[in-house]
TrEMBL record, chains A, B:
One of its GO terms (molecular function) is ATP binding. The lineage of its organism: Eukaryota, Viridiplantae, Streptophyta, Embryophyta, Tracheophyta. It comes from Panicum miliaceum. Belongs to the ubiquitin-activating E1 family. UBA5 subfamily. This is Ubiquitin-like modifier-activating enzyme 5. Transmembrane segments: none annotated. GO terms for biological process: protein ufmylation. GO terms for cellular component: cytosol.
């Protein structure tokens, strides 16, 4: 589309050269150039969409997402527009997570980073060479707003580990946004690459009682993990700290001169995918939200575990959230009980199994004939044929006695017994 | 960068309006527009790089990949430039796989698809709204050449399930490329979305004896898989076909009117990541290449399995490859034995363990003192402190007899025994 605009510009320039006294054509060119400078609002990009539609047409960017409802995976997909997600660290994992949420039509995204794009980042997805020198948050907003103008994007180019940066971070998480349906954020995704920043996200989320998810990739680029942290309910990041940490110096200075960590777009893409999938399950209430999921790419091994909070945690806000969680246990139990009872009474009014994947039906004993059950399963929709001969079609046993004959024998036996007893 | 070019264009237009009789300025504008139409060659993008460098500078796009060598993950990362990979199907999985391989610096990529970009594809990664209407292969080449100009890209906008398309597909897989170091392709990645196309890729790879990897995502968007297929050695795609397939009609027509499959950028991103990770392990010879890996996102469950070829496979080329594989067994066994012996003799000349993660050292019995071992492990590099008090530092047992005292006792006992025996 931009190609077309440039072609038109070329034609105008050629025409102008033939007839140099046409100031109107200069104005027209000016308009084209301004339109190209604002690609999100220009031709070629799409305009905003008020309501998500499930209509199946090529021009509907949400058709494949709304299909999740029809498939029974998600009850109400459009609720995603009500949610705000903060992503801290817009690097190899965070940028891809932001793009995934943007394409899924999340309501609002808050992006935090203080770094700029470098050519050395090009071995991971998302950033492009022409963005080198831009702040990562600005470059992300540029790309994401072009992909989906429906998403409200907020960009914070700051370092959350400074005092001022932390204050802004905390305030932005609490703030009621301009986005009409949202207050504060619903989830924080940590995609940072160092211990200090993780401890800062942990501190903020413990203070706010904010649920968050942690992610990380190893220095040798071949493993990673994601983790769900619910203040007071699960272990916080300080509950089980690493045994050795940097002290009094910037972690980066610990690394040897001229040495850098390895990274791969594959590992980071997988970790971002697992992270955002977990976030979607959490926000849209489907599947099982994983408390911890590891990824060892050398062996394709995916360990899981759960971590309870540490009552001796050194983070006072964590201990406070643990106390509140314990105090609210009776109320939680009562609510769970009420919900179970409501579901049980609702269930008694409708069939136990609404779907019937295996075509199981209750057959009246009188009419029972195994062949009739098989013939129902055998009927395929038009246009489908079996690829292999049905191997489970055993020939009928040659000497098969009919079930009614067996019944007759039993009845005859019972009559004889009754006769013996009464005699 | 393009922003700057547009700004310059605006200034030129404004100047031209003041002084309309300046044809030179029109030529200058024309040059700017042409430069913008070819962004890969323009300012802002990077030039080609002759050799991959491990130098750690922000301007080196390969520093984080070459670091895989220093970390001991990959023996020779730069070999990736010698490899050619064909990707069939440039959709939600194939396009991301192509971007990952491009950013990893693969030598040559062959891209096959016959479809065009639609807004309905925007819920998956890679394509942008302004590319709507372009063929997927052209749009992919546009984006990928901008990301990494070192990769040789070949675009095939064709349907491999037609007779003519299949011929071109087969010929392109066999062709010696213009890329100096490559003949044919080293790996085929199938990222198609239907059974017919998978059977065509299977047929081509069986005929050529070409190793390939299959990928797929379920219609409800919440699960997927990848699979390695080595003709003759593993099951081919026809060895264990699905029980029910479309016959005589286009699979697409089987789908109900107005109904479309669901898709998610998360599931497709994870499958693309697992697929390319497996491809990297296969090409660069590290880790364990997975024969089959499933992904159930609702439960974060990742099943694995292996499938031997079916001697009764209906695909004649598969049966032929199986025969060749059996016939070559003695030669394979001999080669494996020779390799093992060579490694064994090499191993006898150097230490068994080159790395020593746990700081284990052999201590001379004469000088043995447990405290000295502990003190070595206790020394941390400068700038590191322990986060927790060392819980494994038990107080010394109060009545601990020194080991030399015990030795003295034993020696005394031995002397007494000797005395008894000699008396």
């Amino acid at each position: 589309m931009e190609e077309e605009q440039l072609q038109a510009l070329l034609r105008d320039l050629d025409a102008l050269k033939q007839r140099p006294d046409d100031p109107a054509s200069i104005d027209r060119m000016r308009e084209r150039v301004v339109a190209m400078m604002n690609p999100a609002a220009g031709a070629g990009s799409r305009s905003k969409i008020k309501d998500m539609s499930a209509e199946v047409v090529d021009s509907n960017p949400y058709s494949r997402l709304m299909a999740l409802q029809r498939m029974g995976v998600v009850e109400n997909y459009e609720r995603i527009r009500d949610y705000s997600v903060a992503i801290v660290g817009i690097g190899g994992v965070g940028s891809v997570a932001a793009e995934m949420l943007t394409r899924c039509g999340i309501g609002r995204l808050l992006l935090y980073d203080y770094d700029t794009v470098e050519l050395a980042n090009m071995n991971r997805l998302f950033f492009r060479p022409e963005q080198v020198g831009m702040t990562k948050t600005d470059a992300a907003v540029q790309t994401l707003s072009g992909i989906n103008p429906d998403v409200v994007l907020e960009s914070y180019s700051l370092n959350i580990t400074t005092v001022k940066g932390f204050e802004t971070f905390l305030a932005s998480l609490k703030a009621r946004s301009s986005h009409e349906r949202s207050t504060g954020v619903d989830l924080v995704l940590s995609c940072v690459d160092n211990y200090e920043a993780r401890m800062v996200v942990n501190q903020a989320c413990n203070e706010l009682g904010q649920t968050w998810m942690e992610s990380g990739v190893s220095e040798d680029a071949v493993s990673g993990h994601i983790q769900l942290l619910v203040p007071g309910e699960t272990a916080c990041f300080a509950c089980a700290p690493p045994l050795v940490v940097a002290s009094g110096v910037d972690e980066r200075t610990l690394k040897r001169e001229g040495v850098c960590a390895a990274s791969l777009p594959t590992t980071m893409g997988v970790v971002a995918g697992l992270l955002v999938q977990n976030a979607l399950k959490y926000l849209l209430n489907f599947g099982q939200v994983s408390p911890y999921l590891g990824y060892n790419s050398l062996k394709d091994y995916f360990p899981t575990m759960e971590m309870r909070p540490n009552p001796q945690c050194l983070n006072p806000a964590c201990v406070q959230r643990q106390k509140e969680y314990m105090d609210s246990k009776p109320a939680r139990d009562a609510a769970a009980k009420a919900k179970m009872e409501a579901e049980a009474s609702a269930a008694s009014e409708c069939p136990v199994h609404l779907d019937n994947e295996w075509n199981i039906s209750v057959v009246d004993d009188e009419d029972a004939a195994t062949s009739s059950i098989r013939s129902t399963a055998d009927v395929l929709p038009e246009g489908l044929v079996r690829e292999l001969p049905a191997a489970d079609l055993y020939p009928e046993p040659p000497a098969a006695a009919s079930s009614s004959a067996i019944d007759d024998d039993l009845e005859e036996l019972q009559r004889q017994l009754d006769a013996l007893n009464s005699s």
